[in-house]
Each structure stands twice: as structure tokens, then as C-alpha cells.
């Protein structure tokens, strides 16, 4: 073997090499965990990917956990009735604002006015820290509706804060990576024709699900009609999509259809002539803002219709309920789910949300959620209907079975949508 010759001298002075920028260490991903009757209600780690050749005892246990979570998800997705409740988690994971973000956005718009409002309502959160935007707006709402001595600056602050919140929940979707949403919508929409359509309920104002459905070729039934300016009417939830070929005497149901009910409103809803209509960017979107009166507002139209749809869905026999990114902080929804678990013994439930383990820990004052804790207690008593998963939304999507069921026709449609507008 010959050895390479040393480099020839050029006679020039050596140049200093460019400084190397050290790589920024990313925070470690939180482990995926689950709790079920098979674990005695205790938390076990789930492998992030399939490894059929795992030999280490811990790796084998994590693979078994992965198999069990997939099995629980398959049981829910295969139920006669399928209901999905989507909370903040999936949107926050693609850039949507969290409650802490909304506090900062409202505060930073006009810090002097913000401090003045804090003083008026008795909020003692230091300016450099993040407080509870829901508690702040709730106090403002009480002050704005005093029978005497109303301060008009409080109502002005509420109006400006609500506009900031609506804009923040609208604008991020334009650049969000919705690939995980698209995968999930595609799976949820692909139901056997003999089974009812998947019913998706969400507390989010944003349009992530609608955009994901459009990108994945799914159709949405959302209570709005097909007018040039779509108008909401609860009876429209009974409408479906069918194909009727010229040569056929009977119609056939289209694949890829889901129902969508937005429990707290949407950034593209507006009130016009006592009707709820869809507009691209309304000046005053119809939303239940984060305030203590959201329970009462849930029982006004159009939110009453959405809540009725959820309550009716949870009462159906042989129902599978998949809860995603919902931390059970909304008492009116949490009570409804717990009531269904208590009364509907044929129900199968998977709750998948980040920090789920902390929400179950009654020693964690910041994150504790008593309703999830009650479900963990049921697991410890052997209730096999329920599984709890502590995972990010992308991790959960990768656990959902049959993500690879996309047909060649689906792939062709997706390609044509991207290349031909």
C-alpha cells in the first residue's frame, strides 16, 4: 500500500480557520408513557419506534407497551361509533398560542395599559412573569358589568385583548406544518361504509383541522350550508356526501368524510343579521374567550348545538372516544366525559395528552387535573375500557395504527393538488 505524499508548500502564510459555532443542544424529548389496567394504573415507558429484534429487558418492556397502546387505539378506532375530542395540544405543537403566549401577547401590546388594568382588578402578577389570562379576563368581565361606576377603560381592554387572541389563533395556521394533522384526519375519515362518520369535536378556534382535511382530500360536515356565504344551522349536521353516477340508480356514500363541531367557536365565524355565517377574517369572530363565564356561554347558540352534539355522541352504545391534547381543565367538558364513562359501560377511551402523568399527580399543584386522576384510579381498579397516554401529538400520531392505508388514488389526488391548482 502506498502512502500519500505530503502537501506541497505554496509559500503563503497559513490562514486562520473560521471559528466553529458550537451546536445548540436541543432539549431531550419527554418519554412516551402510558397507564392502563394491565399496568395497575401505574405509568410505563413506551418505545418511540417499532423494534422487533429488541433483546434488552427494558427495550422489550417498552416494545410491549407500544404494542398495548396501539392495541388500545385500534379498539377505539374500530368502535361502531367514533368520537374524537381535540384540545389545545395539537395546535400548540405546530405554533398555535398557549395560554401563556396569549398573556404575553396581550401584555406586550401596551404594557402601561396592561399594568393599569392589573391594578384595577387586583392581579398581582409581576410584569416580567406570565399569569393566568383566563383569570385576568374573568376579573375584567366582572368589573365591566358593575351596576354602577363602570370604568370604560376595562371594556376597551377586553375588546382589544379579544382581538389579539383571535388574531393569534388565526395567523399561525398559514405557515404551520400540518402533516401530522393530515395523517390523523385521513385515518379518522377512512371508516367502513357501514359505520357512522367520525365525529370530531374541538375546543380550538383555529383552522388546523379544516386545512388538514382540505390538504388530505377529506370532506367536512360542520353544520354550515352550501350557500355562497355559508350559514350555520344545526340541521346541516344531518347532511352527508354521496356520489350518484349517471348510469347508477342509487347513490353511494363518499369515502373520507368527517363531522366537525367547534365547541368554543371559530376564527372564521361571524354574526350577521342574527345568523352565524362563515367569513375569511371577520372583525368580531364568534368565540367563547378564555373567561370564567365560558360555561354559561356554552349553553347559548350556536355553542348549545355543539354541546348537544357532543352529549348525544357520548351516549351512543359501542362508542370509542379518543381525547387528544385536552388537559381536562374545562370543567363543563370534563364532567360530561366522566359522566359518559360512568354510565356507558360499552365505551372505550384513550386519553392522550402531554403531561398526562403530571395531571394525574395530586401532589403537583400546578398541573393536577382531578378528572384524569379519577380515570387513573379506575385503571388501578382494573377498568380495561380506559388507557392514558402521556405523549406529544406527533408521538401519538405515530402510534395510531394503519397510517399507511393511503390508497394509490389518494396519493394521486394529493400529487395533483400540489402540482395543478
In short:
The chain has 15 helices and 13 strands. With 421 residues, the protein is α/β, with parallel strands linked by helices. It has two domains: 32-95 and 177-419, Rossmann fold (3-Layer(aba) Sandwich); 99-172, no CATH class.
Question: Would you spell out the secondary-structure blueprint of this structure?
Answer:
Elements: E1 32-36, E2 44-46, H1 57-77, E3 81-86, H2 88-92, H3 99-109, H4 111-121, H5 133-144, H6 152-171, H7 179-189, E4 198-202, H8 208-216, E5 219-221, E6 242-243, E7 252-253, E8 257-262, E9 269-272, E10 275-278, H9 294-297, H10 303-314, E11 319-324, H11 331-343, E12 348-352, H12 356-360, H13 370-380, E13 386-390, H14 393-397, H15 408-419
Parallel strand pairs: 3-4, 3-11, 4-8, 5-8, 11-12, 12-13
Antiparallel strand pairs: 1-2, 1-13, 6-7, 9-10
Question: Tags for this entry?
Answer:
about 425 residues, Rossmann fold, disordered N terminus, alpha/beta, 9-stranded mixed β-sheet, SIR2-like domain-containing protein, 2 domains, 15 helices, two-stranded antiparallel sheet
Amino acid at each position: 500500500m502506498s502512502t500519500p505524499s505530503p502537501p506541497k508548500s505554496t509559500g503563503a502564510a497559513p490562514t486562520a480557520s473560521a471559528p466553529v459555532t458550537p451546536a445548540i443542544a436541543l432539549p431531550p424529548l419527554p418519554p412516551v408513557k402510558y397507564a392502563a389496567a394491565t399496568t395497575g394504573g401505574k405509568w410505563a415507558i413506551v418505545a418511540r419506534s417499532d423494534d422487533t429484534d429488541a433483546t434488552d429487558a427494558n427495550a422489550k418492556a417498552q416494545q410491549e407497551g407500544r404494542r398495548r397502546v396501539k392495541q388500545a387505539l385500534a379498539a377505539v378506532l374500530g368502535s361502531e361509533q367514533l368520537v374524537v375530542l381535540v384540545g389545545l395540544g395539537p395546535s400548540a405543537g405546530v405554533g398555535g398560542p398557549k395560554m401563556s403566549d396569549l398573556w404575553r401577547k396581550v401584555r406586550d401590546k401596551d404594557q402601561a395599559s396592561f399594568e393599569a388594568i392589573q391594578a384595577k382588578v387586583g392581579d398581582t402578577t409581576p410584569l416580567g412573569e406570565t399569569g393566568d389570562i383566563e383569570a385576568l379576563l374573568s376579573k375584567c368581565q366582572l368589573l365591566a358589568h358593575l351596576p354602577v361606576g363602570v370604568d370604560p377603560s376595562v371594556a376597551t381592554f377586553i375588546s382589544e385583548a379579544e382581538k389579539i387572541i383571535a388574531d393569534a389563533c388565526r395567523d399561525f395556521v398559514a405557515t404551520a406544518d400540518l402533516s401530522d394533522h393530515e395523517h390523523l384526519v385521513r385515518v379518522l375519515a377512512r371508516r367502513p361504509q357501514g359505520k357512522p362518520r367520525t365525529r370530531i369535536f374541538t375546543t380550538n378556534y383555529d383552522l388546523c383541522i379544516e386545512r388538514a382535511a382540505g390538504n388530505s382530500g377529506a370532506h367536512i360536515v360542520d353544520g354550515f350550508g352550501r350557500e355562497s356565504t355559508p350559514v350555520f344551522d344545526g340541521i346541516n349536521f344531518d347532511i352527508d356526501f354521496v356520489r350518484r353516477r349517471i348510469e347508477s340508480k342509487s347513490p353511494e356514500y363518499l369515502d373520507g368524510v368527517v363531522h366537525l363541531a367547534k365547541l368554543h367557536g371559530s376564527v372564521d365565524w361571524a354574526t350577521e343579521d342574527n345568523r352565524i355565517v362563515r367569513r375569511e377574517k371577520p372583525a368580531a369572530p364568534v368565540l367563547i374567550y378564555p373567561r370564567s363565564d365560558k360555561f354559561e356561554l356554552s349553553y347559548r347558540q350556536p355553542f348549545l348545538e355543539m354541546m348537544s352534539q357532543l352529549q348525544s355522541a357520548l351516549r351512543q352504545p359501542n362508542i370509542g372516544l379518543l381525547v387528544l391534547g385536552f388537559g381536562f381543565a374545562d370543567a363543563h367538558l370534563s364532567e360530561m366525559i366522566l359522566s359518559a364513562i360512568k354510565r356507558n359501560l360499552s365505551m372505550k377511551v384513550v386519553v392522550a395528552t402531554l403531561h398526562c402523568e403530571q395531571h394525574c399527580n395530586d401532589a403537583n399543584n400546578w398541573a393536577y387535573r382531578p378528572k384524569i386522576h379519577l380515570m387513573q384510579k379506575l385503571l388501578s381498579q382494573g377498568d380495561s375500557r380506559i388507557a392514558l397516554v402521556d405523549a406529544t401529538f406527533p408521538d401519538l400520531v405515530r402510534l395510531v395504527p394503519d397510517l399507511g392505508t393511503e390508497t394509490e388514488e389518494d396519493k394521486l389526488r394529493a400529487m395533483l393538488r400540489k402540482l395543478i391548482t
